[in-house]
Amino acid sequence: MDESLLKQRRSTCPINHIIEIMGDKWTMLVVRDMIFHAKRSYSELQAMPEGIATNILSERLARLERWGLLTKGRDPQDGRRSIYALTEAGMQLIPLLVEMMIWSHGHTDAVDMTTGLAATMAADREGATRELRARLERAHGTSQT
Amino acid sequence: MDESLLKQRRSTCPINHIIEIMGDKWTMLVVRDMIFHAKRSYSELQAMPEGIATNILSERLARLERWGLLTKGRDPQDGRRSIYALTEAGMQLIPLLVEMMIWSHGHTDAVDMTTGLAATMAADREGATRELRARLERAHGTSQT
Fold first, then answer.
1. Minimal C-alpha gap between A80 and chain B (Å)
2. I want to staple A145 with a disulfide (CB 3.0 to 4.6 A). Which of A54, A73, A126, A137 is the partner?
3. What CA–CA distances, in Å, run from A71 to A28, A33, A64?
């Protein structure tokens, strides 16, 4: 993590700390796509259904890198292409995303949801976290930097 | 919940759903103060250490009310004063806040933290959620609308 970022925070409250990193629609959507859809490239991320502008995507990726939540590397299959990987700190956001999924499912039926997915998550949060992490680790393979 | 809000969402992804409601620094700080500090009045909320502007606070409170996360009522001790109470949907955000606390504590020591609080939460997430909810219900008392 770039320590200079800590000086710019508006308070030292731990909730504020994560809000300074993640408290922005686009940042959270980028992390969602990396965690639930195992996206790793700029073009995959840009294709999110919410329509992210390229300058915003670049800024948020750089910001997540500065905060130490992801690393940027070169695609071993195509050296001109950057790929992104979640760090351990990034992976540890999984339980937060699981809670977001459970909450949304519990409070509106106006969301797309694979049948039973949120119920499975709610019944076994730790299991859901473990499974998502295992899937991500497989997707990241050995190319994680 | 004001159903017209659903039509303005950028996608029907469940993660996007909660992001549309909560994916904003100030909204999350308002919810933090209501959950962890059991704040109920405008003036208590305005006193947050991060310094929220009055127009932003008013807008975020109205927004949380439209989404059905809080209700606005009259203070029984002072009829001119509004007080806010979390609804059941608002209370169900507690596990999310608990995860935010645990994550921040695990990823920097540059946060204020009552000794052992995050460790206690991490060891027993459900217990922490129950305890926070019980404390909130006591604070809301019978005046919850």
1. 31
2. A73
3. 16, 15, 8
Residue A51 region by backbone torsions, left for phi larger than 0, else alpha for psi between -120 and 50, else beta: left
**Residue B142: per-residue pLDDT:** 45
Are the C-beta atoms of residues B108 and A6 closer than 8 Å to each other?
Answer: yes
A118-128 pLDDT per residue, tens: 888 989 999 99
Residue A100 is nearest to which of B15, B101, B106, comparing CB atoms? B15
| Residue B119 CA neighbour count, 13 Å, CB half | 5
Q: Mark yes or no for CB contact A108/B6 under 8 Å.
A: yes
Q: Which residues are within 8 A (CB) of A71 and not within 5 positions of it... i.e. 6 or more apart?
A: A65, A84, A85, A87, A144, A145
Strand partners, B25: none
B92 neighbors B72 (Cβ within 8 angstroms): no
Give B114's pLDDT tier (boundaries 50, 70, 90): low
* Joined tokens for residue B11: 């996608």
Q: C-alpha angle with apex A31: B116 to A88, nearest 5 degrees?
A: 50
pTM: 0.91
- Look up residue B68 and give its two tokens: 């059905």
Beta bridge partners of A73: A83
Which tens digits make up the pLDDT trace of B67-89? Answer: 999 999 998 888 888 999 999 99
The answer to whether A32 contacts B16, with C-beta atoms less than 8 Å apart, is yes
Euclidean distance between CA atoms A121 and A134, whole angstroms: 15
DSSP, collapsed to helix, strand or coil, labels residue A39 as coil
